[in-house]
Amino acid sequence: MNLPLTEPGAADGAPGDHLLEVDGLSVEFRTDHGTVRAVRDVSWHLDKGETLAILGESGSGKSVSAQAIMGILDSPPARITSGEIRFNGTDLLTLPAEEQRAMRGEQVSMVFQDALSALNPVFTVGSQIAEMFRVHRGTSKKEAMDKAAELMDRVRIPGARNRVKDHPHQFSGGMRQRVMIAMALALDPAVIIADEPTTALDVTVQAQIIDLLLDLQRENGMGIVLITHDLGVVAETADRVGVMYAGRIVETGSIEEVFSRPAHPYTAGLMNSIPRVDQIGSRLSPIVGSPPSLAAIPVGCAFHPRCPRAVDLCRSEDPRLVEVGPGRRSACHFAKDVLDA
Ligand code: SF4
């Protein structure tokens, strides 16, 4: 029998203590080339008004966990094999499909990475935002368009009232991302999951979008789950971080603690690969090798082929995610040594 990869209570606290709780979530894809274990026993929680960053390289399972929360996994081939996704203590996965849809649209919404693909090119942006009010609230067409214009104004699209009848291609990348945020905000959700919301944008526009999300969070106290591979974005925005590697969380904790004293060699490697102004002229130390295929995860600790600390134990035994300090967890046999390094 396989042991769970997280110690009991890794979502922190009793069920229902937090606004959104992901508890022991595992997702697999059955493909012609075998089973892809995209998410393995992942647990985390989010509180009201908090920003949690889920950090990882592409293919680490971070977006798949978000899709599982939003109920938009391509299923089949995807299959949730275990776990709970609780919103205010209610497990979304046990609700009838209709209630799941309502909960996900109204309480938890999502901002996607690629606004151009997420928006329908045939309809005006105003009508796409208005559709949220018409479908979920039964609002009249005129009132829904008024609300759409108000929302476009709220996400600071200049001349919003004159732009409701424009189509997505008439907006810049940054403005399209604002439209996506307006759609996500339409029903006043308690949680927004933002999946790489700034990846396709240039640096200045990235900063504007992040500032906008944080301003909106201050206005309505929503919780934000920010999915990203960008350490800079995490450092600037998040309160806590969950670091993902090969489909599982390998470290969690507050931004200050994880960034200043990592407790997992993968996180330490990520930190060492950031250019720093006090080390101009010295070489960066990237993590050697590349992440494993999720269809062929190494036995033992999945990071061992790239880990400078790996010993025989790491090649045979997968370390559990255990507490290494208040609010901090690490999945490394030598987490204390890494912390003290
Ligand atoms: Fe490295 Fe071993 Fe820790 Fe895995 S368990 S991160 S291989 S030291």
TrEMBL record:
Keywords: ATP-binding, Cell membrane, Membrane, Nucleotide-binding, Transport
Membrane disposition: Peripheral membrane protein
Keyword Cell membrane: yes
One GO cellular component term: plasma membrane
GO BP term, pick one: peptide transport
Pfam families in the cross-refs: ABC_tran, oligo_HPY
Major location (coarse): membrane
UniProt keyword annotation of Cell membrane present: yes
MF GO annotations: ATP binding; ATP hydrolysis activity
Taxonomic superkingdom: Bacteria
CDD domains, sorted: ABC_NikE_OppD_transporters
Subcellular location: Cell membrane
Residue span, ABC transporter domain: 20-271
UniProt family annotation: Belongs to the ABC transporter superfamily.
Protein name, per record: ABC transporter ATP-binding protein
Originating species: Pseudonocardia hydrocarbonoxydans
Highest classification ranks of the organism: Bacteria, Bacillati, Actinomycetota, Actinomycetes, Pseudonocardiales
